[in-house]
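Researcher: Structure for this, please.
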Amino acid sequence: MTAVFSRAVALKLGGGLKFASRILLASVVGAEAAHAATLELGAHAPPWAQVGAAVLLYLHIGGGAVGLVTGVIASLARKGGAAHRLSGKVFVGAMFVAYVIGAGVAPFLSEGQRPNFVAGVLALYLLATGVSAARRRKFDAGPAELAGLVVALAITGVGVWFMIEGAASESGTVDGSPPQALAVFVVAGLAASAGEINVIVRRSLSNGARVSRHLWRMCALFFFASGSLFLGQPKVFPDWFNASILPVFLAFAPVLLMTYWLIRQRGSQR
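Model: Predicted structure, token format:
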């Protein structure tokens, strides 16, 4: 993961590649592991290690790219329709691959990757609970929600710790990530914690609340992906694009879509 939008995977692409190809290859989801250089081994490394690193890198990038495309389709398609279900399944699979690799590789890289590891855990938690909300037609509280609350609170606590550490450090960052960027752990962690507490206290969720739980968690994942690309990959875009409002707008588009669908969902309940 780009350390929550402040770090990104950087691929050296030939000048002959088209702009669209550069975007596709540079698309790495939020909670990504590190830049490409840390997964590119030198000539001294054994062949099996070089092949393994390359496979992980391109699976990581491919999962992010596919997740971005299917996220757009799933967000715009009619909810519950065939297009939404199919694109949603592909989105889940792509995000799972990218986040598992990101979280799994981060602790073993030479450069500091603590925020990236935590971001990967957060993303996998949101992915698992979001999918569960879609599949469990009768949503009753159980051990999964208690475990989810522990994870969400832990992520919130780590986010606060990182922000304090970053503000107090000489570099003003935690492994390259500024405290402002690390606030995403606190915001997402608190929102997820509130959701788990709501389920535990009520002991069950209505169908509308279950759908809302699914919506915001999937859109949060989509936001991580779009933010990682449009805010964390300026090198793959032309100067005029980076100087415009488009990167910010496209990065936060999933948040706008989430707001729209949640309001529409609430209106349909009424």
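Researcher: Any notable elements?
Model: Residues 125 and 148 are 8 Å apart (CA to CA). The chain has one domain: 3-7+18-269.
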